[in-house]
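Figure 6 in text form: structure in, sequence out.
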């Protein structure tokens, strides 16, 4: 099996439909890449993400995200063993009052 260099183009096309993939950088845009894959990616996208960053780095990147949907937060919290309360998105959500559900 040959070692192929992973590129942004290997991700599903729907993940980065709104940006020029050629301008995305693994380091500069890591938060955007991780968030998109967690929230909208397929299992193949998740595998690419893990190969590129590793689970620990993905967890560290996610801890700094301002927003992340609840399922993605639960998923990454479970995989990394990092408590939900340690994630910035969880803390911010708790500090914003919710509207009444009617």
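Output sequence:
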């Amino acid at each position: 099996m040959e070692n192929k260099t992973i590129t942004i183009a290997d991700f599903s096309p729907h993940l980065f439909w709104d940006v020029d993939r050629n301008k995305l950088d693994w380091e500069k845009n890591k938060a955007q890449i991780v968030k998109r894959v967690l929230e909208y990616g397929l299992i193949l996208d998740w595998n690419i993400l893990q190969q590129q960053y590793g689970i620990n780095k993905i967890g560290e990147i996610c801890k700094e995200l301002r927003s992340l949907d609840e399922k993605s937060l639960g998923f990454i919290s479970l995989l990394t063993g990092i408590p939900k309360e340690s994630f910035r998105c969880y803390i911010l959500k708790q500090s914003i009052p919710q509207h009444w559900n009617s």
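Caption detail: Residues 30-40 form the longest helix (11 residues).
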